[in-house]
Amino acid sequence: MINAPVKQLLILIDRHETWHERPLSEAIVAALQKQGVAGASAFEGMMGFGWHGQFHRQGFFGVAAEKPIAIIAIDAEPTLRAAVEVLRPMVREGLIVLSDVEVLHQGPSRSGRDGTA
Question: Candidates 1.10.760.10, 2.40.30.170, 3.90.1800.10, 3.30.70.120; correct CATH number of 6-100?
Answer without folding.
Answer: 3.30.70.120
